[in-house]
Design brief:
The protein has about 575 residues and is α/β, with parallel strands linked by helices. The protein is about 55% helix and about 15% strand. The strands form four sheets. It has a six-stranded mixed β-sheet with strand order 6-5-4-7-8-11, with helices on both faces. Strands 1-2-13 form a three-stranded antiparallel β-sheet. It has a two-stranded antiparallel ribbon with strand order 3-12. It is elongated, with a radius of gyration of 37 Å.
């Protein structure tokens, strides 16, 4: 996006038409005075060295230089700038409940929309603090790693929806556990976990998780969203409401008692969100009690200064104006540079050259405006045009990756970020491409790829704590993932062994049945045969009991009975 930091100076551009008017009046008066001396054609022949167009060209060059200097004073800004800053604040992880019950409309417009508004207000109130975002339902995952980039926080917030969670339900314990492991390793700094939920905890363990977070020096604050009377849960696009297993409409209500217990266990406070401003004030008062510490952080500002380009152009115009004399040079009298047609052709050529040279930048600026307005598909089109015009422009490729990421086209976004990393020469911007790749892979639980991307990012920016801790978190999660795969493989092997044993037992039973039939055909049964049948029956009963014991000892999968 293009903007002016001090647009008040642009009012000085009013001088341009005023100077043009003064120049026009002065030129007319000059011609009137010349006519008093005689015929204009005769005067022209008497003054062969006087040029008609040179003074005009010099005037317009000075006027253009003045306009550029005025634009410089207004401080034009464009794009983003990466810088390292020292900040004194706290670290906050927001855990947002996006289960289906958050669609309930007992508060306007809905619980989830009100929660998003609350998070946006939180971000607007933060100045020197770090923030992270976790979404949860029946499971939890990191939507935004802890960072000082508030612009990205708002961008990720807009894309949150219950449909992005494959496992529904409400597992507050999983959200608190993940938040506990998502902070940096900074010591003596206040760390707050803000859980925004309607309090329906279907999985349990939230109190234990809050107590564990408190022992690690963190505080758990719970913002309750909804009403105690409850409301049905609408199903998007159908006009119907969600029903339970018995066919009755589900009534979801705020469980304030449970929320208060979790906040008390986490050493924080419970706040009921009825009015955003009041809840925000209460939360600010609670967060102000936490200790603050100075930390170094990477800041991605919205705009970067662009006045240097205007200054260079103004300087070139002034130099050109000085080099052009008011009168023709006798040594160069046979060379005409200021004929009517030649001046028009020269100006047209300069315009075409400048337009073609800036086309990719214009497409980028257009895409930035569309992206900030939330029009991601059209922003993608603009960025693709910029890439088509200049495939080696790393900013266009990187912005295209962001537009694809906003539309949840993660695989295509990764390709663009990889291309941007190859084209980019600035280490900090190149690092951001690798960091984004790591975030996408981490969100899809592709921990191996995420680890490699984070390592590449740290090679370019070793001072970034955010990437380092994301790397450690992914390494920990990958170990758990590998262990789960080993356990599943072991269970599969054990199951195959049990199936083989069952097949062998069935074959033995068939053989025994054949023997029984053969013996039934005999008129009499001997004592030895009777004992064999009795022993076989006892053995079969013992084997059945052993199978039942093994089945009871095997872990059972968790069945989600409530998908809201």
């Amino acid at each position: 996006m293009f903007r002016f930091e001090d647009p008040i100076y642009l009012w000085l551009l009013v001088l341009i038409p005023i100077l043009v008017l003064i120049r026009f009046i002065s030129y007319r008066n000059q011609k009137k005075r010349l006519r008093k001396f005689g015929d204009m054609k005769l005067l022209k022949e008497l003054m062969p060295d006087v040029s008609r167009f040179r003074p005009v060209v010099k005037f317009w060059l000075l006027l253009a230089a003045l306009a550029l200097l005025i634009v410089m004073l207004a401080r034009p800004q464009l794009g983003t700038k990466i810088s390292q800053e020292k900040r004194t604040g706290i670290e906050t992880i927001i855990a947002l409940d996006i289960s289906n019950s958050m669609r309930a409309e007992d508060i306007v417009p809905s619980r989830l929309d009100r929660s998003k508004m609350m998070v946006e207000n939180l971000v607007d109130h933060f100045t020197n603090d770090k923030i992270g975002l976790i979404v949860f339902a029946g499971d939890a995952f990191v939507q935004l790693p802890i960072t000082s980039d508030y612009v990205s926080a708002k961008m990720f917030l807009s894309s949150i929806d219950p449909s992005m969670m494959a496992t529904q339900g409400t597992d507050i314990a999983a959200a608190i556990d993940m938040a506990t492991n998502s902070f940096t390793q900074e010591e003596e700094i206040g760390k707050a976990i803000i859980v925004i939920t309607d309090g329906e905890d279907h999985e349990g363990g939230a109190l234990e998780a809050a107590e564990a977070a408190k022992k690690k020096g963190m505080r758990v604050y719970v913002l309750g969203v909804g009403s105690s009377q409850g409301a049905p849960i609408p199903i998007p696009g159908t006009g119907d409401y969600m029903k339970d297993n018995t066919g009755n409409t589900v009534m979801s209500a705020l469980n304030e008692e449970m929320c208060k217990q979790v906040a008390a266990a986490g050493g924080g406070a419970y706040i009921h969100v009825e009015n955003n401003s009041l809840a925000q004030k209460q939360l600010d008062n609670e967060l102000d009690k936490l200790s603050k510490k100075e930390t170094s952080t990477t800041v991605y500002s919205d705009y970067d200064e662009q006045f240097q380009a205007f200054g260079i152009l103004a300087l070139l115009l002034l130099i050109l104006e000085i080099c052009i004399f008011d009168r023709r040079n006798p040594l160069l009298k046979n060379i005409s540079l200021f004929g009517k047609r030649k001046v028009a052709a020269t100006l047209l050529l300069l315009f075409v050259m400048s337009a073609s040279a800036q086309t990719d930048r214009q497409y980028i600026r257009q895409g930035n405006k569309q992206f900030n307005a939330g029009d991601y598909p059209n922003a993608e089109v603009s960025y693709r045009k910029a890439v088509e015009k200049n495939p080696k422009n790393p900013q266009a490729v990187y912005n295209l990756g962001n537009a694809l990421l906003a539309q949840k086209k993660d695989s295509a976004a990764i390709e663009q970020f990889q291309s941007a990393a190859k084209l980019e020469t600035n280490p900090l911007r190149k690092y951001q491409s690798f960091h984004n790749i790591g975030v996408i892979c981490q969100s899809h639980k592709m921990y191996g790829e995420a680890i490699e991307a984070y390592k590449n990012a740290l090679r370019l920016n070793p001072a970034d704590d955010e990437t380092r801790y994301n790397l450690v978190l992914c390494q920990h999660q990958k170990q758990k993932q590998d262990q789960n795969k080993q356990n599943q493989q072991q269970n599969k092997n054990d199951q195959n062994k049990d199936d083989k044993k069952d097949q062998q037992k069935q074959d033995q039973n068939k053989d025994q049945d054949k023997k029984d039939k053969q013996q039934e055909q005999k008129p009499q049964m001997s004592k030895d045969n009777a004992e064999q049948l009795l022993n076989a029956a006892m053995q079969q009963e013992k084997q059945t009991q052993d199978r039942m014991k093994k089945a009871q000892q095997q872990p059972q999968r968790r069945n989600i009975l409530k998908n809201w």
